[in-house]
């Protein structure tokens, strides 16, 4: 089992399989995009599968596949098939923007994918375009309904940005009245690869208060272990609401997660500025046992929380990083 110096057992890996994305969301990257990596700089399918096997041996039970946009990777489905066969894996989930996802949903269902996180920051076509710089809302909504039609649980991820999509909070909440979805509102973070947040972000508390002003019967639900979101429900509604304190970082205390970037860098915290490059270690000839020791060493150095990780990293400015590079 992977255990850090605070006694926390690590059971969850977020694996970014690609840095590229077919959207240009304002909170993630500049309008002109980023300097995309050469294919040789990304981990290959065998390299990713090898590392996932080692993490599974060490007690990681849940794998979340992210990007960039993971479905831009042509070998994604063969990779999912490989890690789905690992005997110790309990759950595989995917975070996607939904533009390319719909045609793969029947295969995802066959693979036993039970949950997908769908990024959706607005239900208004014009605001969706202003945020993502692409007019593709209809494709995302089609993916949403296809996922539900195949009985795959959907969590909608919405980054809350003052003056950009405040008008969408209540319409997104309204989705939970008739659809069995979880709409999760996320505090805006500074990882946009360009400039820092232009104004003070809305906190999780402000988001909850705003929803409660319009839905006074809103009740808080029981929190699951290691949950990143506080969950709420409006009585009589099919779905529920989550609020994630990604910037104020109030959920860090019992963190059980690691991140692996597309280039193979293992990061023990989102707010950590560097990490151990497992891809380079594999390519230099490290054995599985040597890789396991590197992983254990990294986990033992995991910071107490996101604030400590940022302080330890001595980041002059975190804004030169993008979530597309870190892993969404």
Automatic annotation (TrEMBL):
Keywords: 4Fe-4S, GTP-binding, Iron, Iron-sulfur, Lyase, Metal-binding, Molybdenum cofactor biosynthesis, Nucleotide-binding, S-adenosyl-L-methionine. Pfam families: Mob_synth_C, Radical_SAM. SUPFAM superfamilies: Radical SAM enzymes. Residues 5-217 form the Radical SAM core domain. CDD domains: Radical_SAM (cd01335), Twitch_MoaA (cd21117). It catalyses: GTP + AH2 + S-adenosyl-L-methionine = (8S)-3',8-cyclo-7,8-dihydroguanosine 5'-triphosphate + 5'-deoxyadenosine + L-methionine + A + H(+). The keyword Coiled coil does not apply. Its EC number is 4.1.99.22. InterPro entries: Aldolase_TIM (IPR013785), Elp3/MiaA/NifB-like_rSAM (IPR006638), MoaA (IPR013483), MoaA-like (IPR040064), MoaA_NifB_PqqE_Fe-S-bd_CS (IPR000385), MoaA_twitch (IPR010505), MoCo_biosynth_MoaA/MoaC (IPR050105), rSAM (IPR007197). It comes from the Bacteria. The keyword Metal-binding applies. It is an enzyme of class 4 (lyase). Its cofactor is [4Fe-4S] cluster. GO terms for molecular function: GTP 3',8'-cyclase activity. PANTHER family: MOLYBDENUM COFACTOR BIOSYNTHESIS PROTEIN 1, MOLYBDOPTERIN COFACTOR SYNTHESIS PROTEIN A. This is GTP 3',8-cyclase. The lineage of its organism: Bacteria, Pseudomonadati, Bacteroidota, Sphingobacteriia, Sphingobacteriales. The gene is moaA.
